[in-house]
């Protein structure tokens, strides 16, 4: 069960303690996250909401090892990642984190197969093993018949499916989704959400998702709001103060 009060158990898949992030801008110190606590168990689907600039993407970047906190610690599956070297962190991300972005980030000159294969090129898998993994991932997202298509030959929803296939091809520990439906029409957005829910329910994936869309957020197990740098559950939103959730 997700917790934001620091009372998580040692069995939590993801555990953040006292997580803070401060940026320097024009000589001014801007605190985006302040002493944030978060515990997520394996197989949970968490949605993060909040106003623009509230630090939602910053939080995802910290949990995914793309950025480092100003203070605090992050532990994932027993690995404390906060003080890992850059090279070790790169290896850790490749093994444990699948990223899904709003704008897909596909390489236009590569086919769907080649885009999905990219993360596996950093592994010791043979060519035949990589092919098997890629074909399986594209099958899961329903694009086995688009394996040789280029991004320009795909719809927006299909491009996002390729992105999801790329995210799951290495069987990561958890998925980080930053506005995965933000560039899609409602029908395509619903299809992507059905796919994400399938990954959670059938494949037991842990998903942390940022969204501005309350319809999308409602599909998650729990919705957390970032308010003044602190996380609170949706039904406890009125309890937020500058010192955090009571």
Report on the architecture of this protein.
Residues 236-246 have low confidence and may be disordered. This protein has a single domain, classed as P-loop containing nucleotide triphosphate hydrolases (Rossmann fold, 3-Layer(aba) Sandwich). Helix 5 (156-168) runs parallel beside helix 6 (186-201). 29% of the residues lie in helices and 27% in strands. The chain has helices at residues 56-63, 86-96, 112-117, 127-140, 156-168, 186-201, 214-217; strands at residues 14-25, 28-40, 45-49, 71-76, 79-80, 97-101, 174-178, 206-210, 222-227, 230-233, 240-241, 244-245. It has 246 residues and is an alpha/beta fold. A 6-stranded mixed sheet has the order 6-7-8-3-9-10, sandwiched between helices. The protein has a 4-stranded antiparallel sheet with strand order 2-1-4-5, with helices on one face.
Count of extended strands: 12
> Sheet with the most strands?
6 strands, mixed
Beta-strand proportion:
25-35%
Oligomer: single chain
From the N-terminal CA to the C-terminal CA, the straight-line distance is: 18 Å
CATH homologous superfamily designation: P-loop containing nucleotide triphosphate hydrolases
Global mean pLDDT = 90
The shape, in one word, is globular
Task: Specify the helix fraction band.
Answer: 25-40%
The low-pLDDT segments are 236-246
CATH secondary-structure class:
Alpha Beta
CATH topology: Rossmann fold
Q: How are the strands ordered across the major sheet? A: 6-7-8-3-9-10
Radius of gyration computed on alpha carbons: 18 Å
């Amino acid at each position: 069960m997700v917790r934001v009060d620091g009372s998580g158990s040692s069995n939590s898949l993801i555990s953040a303690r006292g997580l803070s992030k401060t940026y320097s801008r024009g000589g001014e110190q801007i605190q985006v996250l302040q002493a944030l606590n978060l515990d997520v168990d394996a197989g949970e689907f968490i949605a993060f909401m909040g106003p623009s600039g509230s630090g939602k993407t910053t939080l995802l970047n910290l949990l995914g090892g793309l950025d480092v906190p100003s203070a605090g610690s992050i532990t994932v599956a027993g690995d404390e990642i906060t003080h890992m070297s850059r090279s070790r962190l790169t290896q850790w991300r490749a093994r444990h984190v699948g990223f899904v972005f709003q704008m897909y980030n596909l390489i236009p000159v590569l086919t769907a197969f080649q885009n999905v294969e990219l993360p596996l090129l950093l592994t010791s898998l043979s060519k035949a093993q990589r092919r098997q993994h890629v074909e399986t991932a594209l099958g899961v997202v329903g694009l086995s018949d688009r394996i040789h298509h280029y991004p320009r030959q795909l719809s927006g929803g299909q491009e996002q499916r390729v992105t999801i296939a790329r995210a799951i091809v290495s069987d990561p520990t958890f998925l980080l989704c930053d506005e995965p439906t933000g560039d899609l029409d409602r029908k395509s957005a619903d299809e992507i959400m059905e796919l994400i829910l399938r990954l959670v329910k059938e494949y037991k994936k842990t998903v942390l998702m940022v969204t501005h869309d309350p319809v999308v957020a409602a599909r998650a197990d729990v919705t957390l709001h970032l308010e003044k740098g602190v996380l609170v559950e949706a039904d406890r939103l009125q309890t937020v103060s500058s010192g955090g959730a009571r």
